[in-house]
């Protein structure tokens, strides 16, 4: 369901506003993500937004390849709830 938290500059700015970014399985929906957050971290999310970034074709040193598709979930928590990442 939830693969890992996304540790980026944008995610750090969102964390100040009680919104956390996670990389999730492509087949999971908002309800499953909400349940997983409650089970893993013990907080009940206020809302969950899901973003599907499609795969892209790339060329590196003349060789063609694909950049993997990323599925992200932005989870908003209640004020005062804080998730600490090590």
TrEMBL record:
Pfam families: Ribosomal_L23. GO terms for cellular component: ribonucleoprotein complex; ribosome. InterPro entries: Nucleotide-bd_a/b_plait_sf (IPR012677), Ribosomal_uL23-like (IPR013025), Ribosomal_uL23/eL15/eS24_sf (IPR012678). Keywords: Ribonucleoprotein, Ribosomal protein. SUPFAM superfamilies: Ribosomal proteins S24e, L23 and L15e. It comes from the Bacteria. PANTHER family: 60S RIBOSOMAL PROTEIN L23A. This is 50S ribosomal protein L23. The lineage of its organism: Bacteria, Candidatus Yonathiibacteriota.
């Amino acid at each position: 369901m939830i693969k890992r938290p996304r540790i980026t500059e944008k995610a750090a700015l969102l964390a100040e506003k009680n919104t956390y970014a996670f990389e999730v399985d492509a087949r999971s929906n908002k309800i499953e993500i909400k349940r997983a957050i409650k089970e893993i971290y013990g907080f009940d999310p206020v809302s969950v937004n899901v973003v599907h970034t499609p795969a892209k074709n790339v060329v590196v040193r003349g060789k063609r390849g694909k950049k993997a598709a990323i599925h992200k979930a932005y989870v908003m928590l209640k004020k005062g709830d804080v998730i600490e990442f090590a």
